[in-house]
Write the structure tokens for this entry.
Amino acid sequence: MLGPVILAASRSDRMRRLVSAAPVTKPVVDRFIPGETVDEIVPIIRDLTDQGLELTMDVVGEDITTPEQAEAARDAYLELIDRLKPLDLGTRAEMSVKLSMFGQALDGGHELALKNVRPVVEAAAEIGTTVTLDAEDHTTLDSMFAIHEELRKDVPQTGCVIQSYLFRTEADARRLADSGSRVRLVKGAYKEPAEVAYQQRHEIDKAYVRILRTLMEGEGYPMIGSHDPRLISIAQELARTAGRKLDEYEFQMLYGIRGDEHLRLAAEGHRMRVYTAYGTDWYGYFMRRLAEKPANLRFFARSVIGRG
């Protein structure tokens, strides 16, 4: 099981230095993170939306150690919103945020994260788009859900993410499947203990289907975060059974993974949103992409071997 090893490495300063210094790393990282600055990412946004795809934008960087860094993260998202405004894409380009970037792990982190993320959510609403709060490890979720609930009082379209590998998520899904909610369901990409999370893939997948059924039968807007062909097929059947139209749910996949499938789903009339990350602090994001899927790790290994 290499996934847990890679996830541990994602928090290692020594591994960060080794991976970052490897000559092969940048070309491989570029597959998943197509730019470091907002100037570099705007043409990507235009290109993907011209192909009929939608986006959720993530400014990478979770290792926040000071309030000043949290404010800089806020400002990076506000800059992105400012650049999105003239594109007039509305909800075709939304944002995903990790509250750790906004200071959640610092002293007084809950209040600090809420203070920093609120102007981002409000600015997004002003240009006709939305923000989704990403889920992180299980110790952060009570705070994330509380911030989500607070933000929805003024901006009800604010979304959140739930993870099928956590035992708690079926109850969270029942609570969140209300009118106006926007909920992205993913399997989960953090190393979690057996006391709180399923450890076997088949258990995680079965939980995913149970939770997705709850969301599809609810009154909210489900967002299916998966590259798994079998789960995508099941999602389509659950949507049909629940009587949902094609614009009443959406698929979401990562930039750089199964690009042909992005276009196929969009061509069939589905809303297909590409999770697109950019920024200089890419290490943690990149390592989780390797941990999530063995094919990603094999891709990286072949690149290393191919370059000697």
Remarks:
- Residues 67-84 form the longest helix (18 residues).
- The chain has 13 helices and eight strands.
